[in-house]
Amino acid sequence: MKEPLSYRQLQSLIYVSDVLNSSLNIDSIIHSILQTTISVIDAADGGVLFLYDELSDSLIAQSTVGFDPLILNQVRLKPGESMTGLTFQKKECLLFETRQKVEETIRTLSPANIALMEQSIPYYPYSTLCAPILLKDECIGVITLDSFNKEKQFTEEDIKLLKAICHQAAIAIERGRFYQEKEQSLLKLEAMNTKITQHNEMLSRSVQLHRDLADLVLQGKGLSSIMEYLKGATGENFFLYDCNGALIASSMTEPFSDEDIIVVKEFITDILNKQQFRRQTGEVVFRGKTVHMLTFPIGLLPDLFGLLTIVSSKPMNEINIAAVEHASTVISLELLKEEAIFDVHQKVKGDFLDEVLHGRINETILHHAKLLHLYPNQTFLVARLKISTSSTQIQEHLLERRRIAKYIQKLLKRDYPDSFTVIQHDQLIFLFSLSNKLEKEQEIRTIKERFQILLHKLHEQFPSTNFHLGIGRWKNGLEQVYLSAKEANECLKFLSNFSVNEKILCYSDLGLYRLLLQNSEEQIIDFIYDQLRPLIKESKGKNREFIETLNTYIKNNMNVKVTAEELHIHPNTLHYRLNRIQKILNCDFGDPHQLLNLQMALELYSLFEGKMRLFSIHK
Q1: Which family does it belong to (predicted)?
Q2: Are 433 and 378 in contact (CB under 8 A)?
Q3: Matching fold, domains 7-182 and 220-335
Q4: Where are the domains of the chain?
Q5: Which listed CATH number (3.40.50.2300, 1.20.120.530, 3.30.450.40, 3.90.180.10) goes with 7-182?
Q6: Nearest 10 degrees: CA dihedral of 165, 167, 168, 170?
Q7: Which CATH class is domain 519-618?
Q8: Cα-based angle 551, 554, 559 (whole degrees, multiple of 5)
């Protein structure tokens, strides 16, 4: 400052300096600058402190007195625009002594800024004093003071004081900005330190978890132990599903109802259907309460094993998420190990069963049987499950059969621990053993019931796949196993060739139908025509009830009353039809031989009706 200051000015400047030094907060400093400046300059009724913003190349109001701040804060002044902009541009103190000069200079504002300014004050000031805030010869802002009292005018003493205040303000603002930058840097360092601490904690926890899981794997504990460990380490509920949505393993901190399990399954099914094989988060509702779901893919495409799902009452923290990601890798390796063991077992059992099903029994095979907990003098039964899928991809078909085989093996293991399953082409072959020969008939019914339940579950897990099961009879001794396998195959052939709705067929239930398997379709259809041709011809159109009438009559042991009731006709009508049928076929129902032939022909007709139409076309 070159101009000497009066005693009053020095006193005011000391007051301003004390106020500015009372805080290091930049916002507080800026507000104090304007408030104290207006308080020591008598002519000032209001004012604005503007700071320059390099990004927008404009002056922005930081503190106001006498103006509506909500409106004025929207003003953006370009250098040279209005009184404040001119002061910024010229870097010197400017005094606009009259309202006329004030209005003339205000007219240099943009239309938008004029509108905002006129909204912020009731009328234009009578005079205005503007001073630049200079820092190292650079203008960083402007203090604009306004007098709304025509009796008061800014003096030379006010100009000197304002210049001195602006000099103090520049220092205070620089100090405040420096403090703000240091404070922000400190906050960044603290945030970074927190992140590093969390990262170290996450890494330490993940390493420990990885070590613990690796120990479990090395000890051969298996998936159930791994899942239990994860539950204990995180306090969450874990579910492991395969690629078909079948539950492989689970470990829960609380009991889940059947309805809850269905909700989890639906969430997993949706992910599998959309093929979103990456980390997924979501929310589902259990009994009116929202829970959080988190899934991790196990394995990598195309060898994806399934999905690990966590059900939690609140979102998992990043430390536990990182730990579970490590666990996913261990689970993938464990499943890969299980797949390798399964393949080895399949190879060993497959080679053994191939020899047995071909009747090649020798000392090596007998020794092999003992290793598989099978003994030559036991009673054995073979079942064959035919798998028909729409998939044209060989690899997909192989994976599906493997999953089906593992799924069935798991369900059968409890009731038949010594049984085993072998994949052979498009079939799964099951070998069952029985030590007590007296239980054979009961046990075969039990096996059929077990498979009925199992096929229902398979249909739910693999809806696009068809299953047919053939079950052979119990055979005494290992050397007779091939006969049971042959019978099971005959059952599959019957299910495939004839129009029956059954999915499971036991050879012992075939009865007379076994004879069909020894003859060609042409021979069987010829027999049907030999017995029923006139009646089939006569039964076309409106007289079709003849076949139905004869079939119902024979099945009801030729009981007229029961047959009439079942057909909903009068007994006299039935007698008429029966007499008519005997004339058409030229037969006598009293002849047991003829009646047996008719009964067999009718049974076969129900199986071959569709094929007979094609046969008759080509005949």
Answers
A1: Belongs to the CdaR family.
A2: yes
A3: yes
A4: 7-182, 220-335, 358-513, 519-618
A5: 3.30.450.40
A6: 120
A7: mainly alpha
A8: 125
Q: Which class would CATH give 220-335? A: alpha beta
**Tokens coding 137:** 């010869």
Q: Residue 317's CB: how many other CB atoms inside 10 A?
A: 12
For 10-62, the pLDDT digits (tens) are 556 666 666 666 566 777 778 888 888 888 888 898 899 999 999 999 999 98
443 Cβ contact list (under 8 Å, min separation 6) = 434, 474
Q: How many C-beta atoms surround the C-beta of residue 153 within 10 A? A: 16
Calculate mean pLDDT across residues 125-143.
Answer: 91
- What does the DSSP 8-state code read for residue 254? S
Say if residues 553 and 567 touch (Cβ distance below 8 Å). Answer: no
User: Which listed CATH number (1.50.10.140, 3.40.50.970, 3.30.70.270, 3.40.50.1580) goes with 358-513?
Assistant: 3.30.70.270
Q: Cα–chain-centroid distance for residue 385?
A: 32
What gap in Å lies between CA 291 and CA 307, rounded to an integer?
18
The 10s digit of each residue's pLDDT in 1-10 is 445 555 555 5
What is the per-residue pLDDT for 32? 80
Is the pLDDT score of 130 beyond 90?
Answer: yes
Q: Are 18 and 38 in contact (CB under 8 A)?
A: no
Q: Residue for token digits 């503190």?
A: 63
